């Protein structure tokens, strides 16, 4: 009886064959980033409404991903199943849209059925097909050749290389449009507000800092004893030292207190100014939280103070705040 280990070598060989076949198929796309590709980009770039992606079967799954990529990179887009389009969903396509059709054969019946309706709307049609002489290719405003010499499937039946090549062409279109439109990291993050990327690119220090009654701070004439009381009550492991106008003059940390105890300083008579770190690291409240993280890492500290545009104290935050916010 054969065991899984008996097939280990064959599985590796088969897997490597798939990778080799698909990588060759993707490499062949380089010569097809040509005038047709430029024309397609210009069609999308001048689209006044949305890019409506259609496809069926595996091409439909690829189309859904391409639509999602376009939408997240600054080109409004959504996917419509062509079968549903012929039963009412054509109403989702309007005159200012652009249709992107994906069909390896270029003869998909469900797409052929709605071609006259697309033409009647006067909507530009860009297609990704494996046959540039197919009906869909010839009916297109621009056709992009995504043909492959062979599928990675040894039977030559399962869409493998062909779907990978279509996906890569879709990515090439999306990234080219992103660059042409001048989409910034902030623009991109606005499409991803809930993920870690959005938090790193959108979350500001003011969104997570401790402020008002939660902010540990004491005046310059405070004794170590009173500073310890303030630090214990706010539980940040630090306290800011401020003057009467609320300008930051220094910071005292748990480490500073430990060193003070090692020196056997009198906590009742020693002022915080004797152990504080002047010219401490501060960050502006409108700065990104990720900038606060970088400042902590650069200076090898675990907390810092937050100031307003006039450099007056408004808050404090530490590594735990960044961790809870998902910045780390």
Characterization of this structure:
It is elongated and about 90 Å long. The strands form three sheets. Strands 2-1-3-4-5 form a five-stranded parallel β-sheet, sandwiched between helices. A three-stranded mixed β-sheet has the order 6-7-8. The two termini are 50 Å apart. The chain is built from 14 helices and eleven strands. Helix 1 packs across helix 7, helix 2 (35-45) crosses helix 7 and helix 3 runs parallel beside helix 7. By secondary structure, the chain is an alpha/beta fold.
Write the layout of secondary structure elements.
Blueprint: H1 8-27, H2 35-45, E1 51-54, H3 58-72, E2 77-80, H4 82-85, E3 98-103, H5 109-121, E4 125-129, H6 135-139, E5 142-145, H7 161-180, H8 185-190, H9 196-202, H10 205-208, E6 217-219, H11 224-234, E7 238-242, E8 248-253, H12 254-262, E9 282-284, H13 289-299, E10 303-307, E11 313-318, H14 319-324
Parallel strand pairs: 1-2, 1-3, 3-4, 4-5, 6-7, 9-10
Antiparallel strand pairs: 7-8, 10-11
């Amino acid at each position: 009886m054969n065991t899984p280990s008996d097939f280990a070598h064959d599985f590796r060989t088969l897997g490597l064959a798939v990778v080799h076949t698909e990588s060759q198929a993707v490499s062949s796309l380089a010569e097809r980033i040509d005038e047709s590709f430029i024309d397609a980009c210009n069609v999308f770039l001048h689209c006044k409404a949305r890019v409506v992606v259609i496809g069926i079967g595996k091409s439909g799954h690829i189309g859904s991903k391409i639509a999602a990529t376009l939408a997240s990179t600054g080109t409004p887009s959504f996917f419509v199943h062509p079968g549903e389009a012929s039963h009412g969903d054509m109403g989702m396509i309007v005159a200012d849209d652009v249709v992107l059709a994906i069909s390896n054969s270029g003869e998909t019946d469900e797409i052929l059925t709605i071609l006259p309706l697309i033409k009647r709307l006067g909507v530009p049609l860009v297609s990704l097909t494996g046959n540039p002489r197919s009906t869909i290719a010839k009916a297109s405003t621009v056709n992009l050749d995504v043909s492959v010499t062979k599928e990675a499937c040894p039977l030559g039946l399962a869409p493998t290389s062909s779907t990978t090549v279509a996906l890569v062409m879709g990515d090439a279109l999306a990234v080219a449009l992103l660059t042409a439109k001048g989409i910034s990291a902030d623009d991109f993050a606005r499409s991803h507000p809930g993920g870690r990327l959005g938090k790193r690119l959108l979350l500001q220090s003011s969104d997570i800092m401790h402020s008002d009654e939660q902010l540990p701070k004491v005046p310059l004439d405070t004794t170590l004893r009173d500073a310890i009381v303030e630090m214990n009550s706010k539980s940040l492991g630090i306290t800011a030292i401020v003057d009467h106008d609320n300008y930051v003059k220094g910071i005292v940390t748990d480490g500073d207190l430990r060193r003070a105890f090692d020196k056997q300083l009198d906590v009742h008579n020693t002022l915080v100014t004797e152990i504080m770190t002047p010219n401490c690291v501060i960050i502006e409240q409108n700065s990104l939280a990720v900038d606060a993280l970088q400042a902590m890492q650069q200076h090898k500290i675990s907390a810092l103070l937050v100031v307003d545009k006039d450099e007056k104290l408004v808050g404090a935050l530490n590594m735990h705040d960044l961790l809870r916010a998902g910045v780390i």
